[in-house]
Write a structure and sequence with these properties.
The longest helix is centred in the first third of the chain and has 48 residues, at 17-64. The radius of gyration is 26 Å and the shape is elongated. Strand 4, helix 8 (295-313) and strand 5 (318-325) form a beta-alpha-beta unit. A three-stranded mixed sheet has the order 3-4-5, covered by helices on one side. It is mainly α. The chain has helices spanning 17-64, 68-94, 108-140, 150-177, 180-208, 216-243, 250-261, 295-313, and strands at 2-5, 11-14, 267-277, 280-289, 318-325. It is 69% helix and 11% strand. The model is unreliable at 1-14 and 16-20 (pLDDT under 50). The protein is built from eight helices and five strands; from the N terminus they run ββαααααααββαβ.
Length: 326
């Protein structure tokens, strides 16, 4: 009998070709997972570097340029930087293999990261709206608002260019890596790009249209804040739904039932239960088969169902099939 130990500390023994193939499959899955997390870190670090640069520039431009909208935009960039750190920490935890305390792995940590990002984004949005409304009310009561400077406008335009580029890069990687956390962070970058767009319009209007229109600066910050509220609510709804074991969309479940029903010898798949665990699915269902067939044949057919679903939804998909006689 031969033994094999992996880098994760697990020991495998095998005395036939089947066991050897199993070990090879485990190694391939582990390698793919490691590469995935390396890519996630790379994407997050790129976004983090851009956030640090913009964070410092925006704060200086907002203070020196007397722009409330730019200071609000800088706070938004600060929240982006914080969420980059959250992604790095939580994705590392979610990449741990299954253990005695976590039979289904640690994938929920990635969903938790998305939820925390949504909460941070919502807090930032509420602060931006409140600050802008305070200035608008002051302006309506006769207070003169100071016109922002050109430095604030240039900072806003630079932010639009850089953050939109980081959004497109992050979203492309999020789809390739099937990562909820990276996708949530990508939307955070997009919200910052849109925030800076509104900020640029407000600052530009306040600069070029004269003193009467200095209110456009806080108006822009309020509009941007309301948009960020919607983005954050969407992230929270998806994150909390997954944490609360929300079922997968009806279209996905119907597709699963059609796939299983297409196998010869399998009838009436039912009692389907689904949920998301991080970046992969968990599927449980019942199927009917001829009650007179041998147990081994029924077991092989159930394994065929599991293989079919994993081929379609990923090797890390958790599948449990219950066989009933018809």
């Amino acid at each position: 009998m031969h033994y094999f130990s992996s880098d994760n500390g697990f020991a495998y023994n095998f005395n036939n070709l089947y066991d050897l193939n199993l070990v090879i499959c485990i190694l391939i899955i582990n390698f793919a997972a490691m590469e995935r997390y390396k890519e996630i870190y790379k994407v997050t670090l790129v976004g983090g570097a851009v956030n640090v640069i913009l964070l410092l520039f925006k704060f200086v431009a907002g203070i020196v340029g007397h722009s409330a909208a730019m200071v609000a935009d800088a706070i938004h960039s600060l929240s982006d930087f914080v969420t980059d750190i959250i992604v790095i920490v939580f994705v590392r935890i979610s990449g741990k293999p299954e253990d005695k305390s976590h039979d289904y792995g640690h994938g929920k940590y990635e969903t938790l990261a998305m939820t925390i990002i949504g909460m941070a984004l919502l807090a930032v949005a509420v602060g931006i709206v409140y600050s802008g409304m305070t200035k608008i009310i002051a302006w309506a009561n006769g207070e003169q608002l100071e016109a922002p400077g050109m430095l604030a406008l240039w900072a806003a335009l630079l932010s639009v260019f850089l953050k939109e580029g980081v959004y497109r890069y992050s979203m492309t990687k999020a789809r390739q890596l099937n990562s909820q956390a990276v996708e949530a962070n990508a939307w955070h970058h997009r919200s910052d790009a849109l925030s800076s767009t509104g900020t640029a319009i407000g600052i530009g209007g306040a600069i070029f249209l004269g003193q009467r229109w200095t209110v456009l600066d806080p108006v822009a910050s309020v509009i941007v804040g309301l948009f960020i509220v919607k983005v954050s609510v969407d992230l929270l709804r998806n994150g909390i739904g997954d944490l609360m074991e929300q079922s997968l969309p009806d279209a996905v479940e119907e597709e699963m039932l059609r796939l299983v029903a297409s196998l010869p010898g399998v009838a009436e798949p039912h009692d389907l239960r689904t949920r998301r665990i991080g970046n992969h699915y968990a599927i449980e269902l019942h199927i009917l088969m001829d009650g007179d067939i041998p147990l081994k044949e029924a077991h092989d057919k159930a394994s065929e169902v599991e293989d079919l679903l994993r081929q379609h939804y990923g090797e890390e998909t958790h599948v449990a099939v219950h066989v009933e006689p018809k």
